[in-house]
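Chain X:
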Amino acid sequence: MMISLAWVVPVVAAQRLGELWLCRKNRLRLMARGGREVRPDTYRTMVALHVLFLLSLSWESYPWRAPAGFRTWACLAALVAVTGMRYWAIASLGEYWNTRVVVVPGTRLVRSGPYRILRHPNYLVIVLEFLLLPLLLRAPVTLVLFSLANLAVLRQRIGIEEKALAETGASAGGVAD
């Protein structure tokens, strides 16, 4: 038996649009409190990667159907858990969560929620999504190409965040994943 997964990419895209709205709101609030954006030039690369990932996923997985077997249900269950972790990270950072690198001098390190365990939990979420979504939608080319590209982009991004934190004395809360 096959099931339709045509809803997956639109749902993920809608989530990302909502997150961009929240990012803008939080960014304006942080800037009003003396925050500054670090390396805004790298943000376009991150956005392009995610847009191209979703487009590739849509194209490669057409007609968006998969067997209703263990792999499909396991990927869906894992995606639900990973999405929960994403929103746990967002909630833990509160107004400091952002998709841009914004530092607010003098803020304290966030050590609640998943930040008790990991320094950058949202980046783990992104890595897992770049694996799970192509596995779910049977898109092996997207899986390999975009997982590797994502790792390169995240490596750069984490380096930028860590350097900004060290230079300003801001916390991981001041630079959100």
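Chain Y:
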Amino acid sequence: MRRPRRAARGRGGLDRGREPLGDVNLLDLTPVREAEWKDADGWVVLERPSPGRGGLRGLGDRLSFAMSARRIRLDDIGSCSWKCFDGETTVGEACAVLRERFGDPIEPVEERLGRFVRYLHQDGFLSYREE
């Protein structure tokens, strides 16, 4: 099984200046939406957040932002997941919703949703509510 590219580059789980999760169980975290979005016929369309860093250090972020898609359309599983990230539902509870709605084809749901949540957090679409 191949490792994700970011892990293979030795980033050690750090999320572009954000705090690493450390010993926290991802399933216990409560994601909060940080990006603008709309529901387009049942599919979620995300607006990519603007990079926040300035100076020369932020130049790479701004260039990659300019070359990346401004809007991202999620599939049915991603859209259902996004709608669960209301600031009240934990990742573990979202897994149960996905399992109930999509059944066996989504398994292993914890692993798949975990990767999706980490990606959204890394790119600034989500934050985690502090307990």
